[in-house]
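Re: the request from the purification team.
They wanted to know what the chain is likely to look like in 3D before they choose a buffer screen. I agreed to run a prediction and write the result into the notebook, where they can find it.
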Amino acid sequence: MSKNNLKSVVSKRQLYRRIAAIVNQINHETKIESTTPYDLGQSSTSQCVEQDLCPPSLDNFEVIPDFQSTDISILASSDSEEHDLPERSVIENSTYAESLGLESQSWATSFKITHIALKRLLHILHPYHPYLPYDSRTLLHTPLNFPVKQLESGQYIHLGLEASLKHFIDKNEHWQGDTLFVSFNIDGLPLYKSTNIQCWPILGLIKNLPHQSPFAVGVFCGKSKPCPLPVYLDRFIEECNFLKNGFLHKSKRYNFCIHSFVCDAPARAYIKCIKPPTGYSFCEKRVAPGEYVSGRVILRDLCAAKRTNESFRRQLDEDHHLGLSPLLALDIDMVKQFPIDYMHNVSLGVMRKLLNYWVGGNLNIRLGSTSVIRISNTLACFKDYIPIEITRKPRPLSELQRYKATEFRTFLLYTGIVALKDILPCQIYNHFLLFHSAIYLMVVSDRDENREINSELASKLLLTFIKQGGRLYGREFYIYNVHVLSHLSDDFLHYGALDNFSAFPFENYLGHMKSLVKSTTKPLQQICHRLQELNHTGIEINNKSNLPRVEIEHVNGPCLINNFEKQYKKVFLANYCLSIFSYSKSDAFCITDNKIIQIFNIVCDQSGGIAIIGKYFSKSTSFYEYPFDSSILKIYLVSELSKELNIWQLSDIKGKCIHLPFKDKYVSIPLLHTTS
């Protein structure tokens, strides 16, 4: 650009750019002038002429020693190194600048730094690191805008399904598959306590690989549910139908399949356009009519005709439908691909209902205050025995109304069977064991060869639980959450372990999305901007090739043989972490094929092989015998550690255990997601 075309009034950033360009040009010209031999010779000659010096004679020269070829090479190499220094410095500075920028991005997004604070920090750092941008939006690659769709009740932004799938492929470069199975979730999320503004994102989750995080396909924000529903879902449905024929990414074709829609009951009713959970014909699996009892609708018929995809699409049961669902345009099974979510149904539904019965129900069921205190004290004692994989530790029953879904799940699967033992009346305790054993069976089992047998057993246990519950708690017990337990085994048979179609990962992601909103101004844009910024913080690879991994070296022993050169306090495996007892007693118990082990040391040999040194419990018996022997689930009452230390290879370990005190013994319960 010529000087005449330069603007007379420029921004501060433009002024800095022009100054930097001029400085770079001056430095470049100076470097050329100072390193040109011709100019140096010309300068010295002219200096001689100006000083009017006489031509030199041989007598005026001192004897110059002979130069060897090595001397010439040294001079040449020295000269070349001098010329390479600026280029090398530029490369190093460029690498350093890129590294600092990426680390700054990661820090800002990980700790949810506001743009105002980040921008101020960049202004402070810029004089010392001029390659950093001045604006936080430049650093985080914040998009300028999104196309916003206006709905009657709010606004919607479609982020894209195909883009998210390609991002997943890029993150997992070691994945060699060609078909992506995606589970979707649609649910409402209140953003503020003082207003009705709510967020309804469409979330997806890749089911092919474990330990994946959900992603947002689209986000709606408004004062009520997204309305009209067809307008809210049309971009999502259009893209799903487009992707069913596959898509290309980096010269490879990938297939896309819908795995399931995992939602709570109200959200399923809304997107399927059927009666809500309070309706008489709401049951999604069977044509079971409800009846009104004591202010609620109950469902007692457990043997009604099953609904099918064909009957749903033809709307044979008119009382079940409120209209035509937009999802009918997808090639999915409208019954089987909407499984019962055990987070809402089992944990927040039935387990919470049982605890409320025992703490504040009718007098013929309610526990006395002394019994409630005993249970609370027992739960408090369990805090030091809960492993690191369970994030929420047990709380007393006085905080029952604040329990989260994970706390109800922990109580049902692990702590409840011990805390309620000898406190809850025998008949009620055995009724609870029906529920515990059925859910435990469907959470732990994911093998195809055992699935049909376990599904049949779990179905019988749950049907017995439902029928006995009516006699113990009254007809009001047959609420919707209890009724659909009779259908849970069918979903288990179709999808496998209950965590394969659970809403737990989606609920965690919703909480993360809520934390992205910093003010009441344009919450939809805030969420979408932050989500896009997270996609630019670097490529994450879910690669388990560096596992198992040991940490925290020590020299305290014990060691049984001398060929182990290093000792450690922790070892990380794919799904869990083990520690020595002196470091963390809650993470120091594991299970082999037939023994419960307490870990005393973790050792590593010269070839990298890892072994466990510990003692095993010599006495183990079943903890309960109804409805079947607890040893079938590998739940034992153990005591008496072996006197001598033993050694096990890491490959001998089949999983991790929760070790809970009971009287003068311990109850050992396998940690479900760790067992093989």
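For the purification team: The mean pLDDT is 85.
Please add any questions underneath this entry.
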